[in-house]
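User: I'll paste a sequence; please echo it back and then give the predicted structure.

Assistant: Echoing your sequence first, then the prediction.
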Amino acid sequence: MSHDRTHGIGTGTDARGRVDERFLIRRILQGDAAAEREFYDMHVDRIYRLSYRMTGDDELAREFTQETFIRAFDRLAEFRHEAAVSTWLHAIAVSVTLNGLRRHRRHSARETELDHAQHLGAPPVDSIEPDLKSRLKRAIDALPEIYRTVFLMHDAEGYTHEEIGAVLNVPVGTSKARLARARARLREALSDFAEEFA
């Protein structure tokens, strides 16, 4: 997520004016609160969106987003730059959210908003008849966790299979296979609406 910020000389930007995250991380590890806030601002929107897609609940998504950053800052000294910091952070977010959902599952009924069902070949959600929209949400909720996570990351949030593979620590082919299985299960669950997904 880009932010219009003015960086002075020596504040750690590259030739294009983008933040040098290695420099930013060094500042955070030295106790620079402004650097910590800048890191948070750079990543919070996408972390929140991912957690919200997975939970369907604003309060839980906010809780898991905060927990993600708490864990990230605690573990920042262990980050070795072997992957992009965003990939590392999203891996923490997925872990935090999945574990959090397991804790909360018995206490909250989850409904996942799907504003971008076009990847299933469906019309925009606003034009889907209410019964189909409700059935689609229930069908997504009923997917096994490994399929639901890939489906939501790819079809709802627009992550590439390469990004998903890096976040979930699985081969790209596994991500593609899980997405295909998720879509197949959804088509099967909604078979009486088959014309909508032709």
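The first helix runs from residue 21 to 29. DSSP finds eight helices and no strands in the chain.
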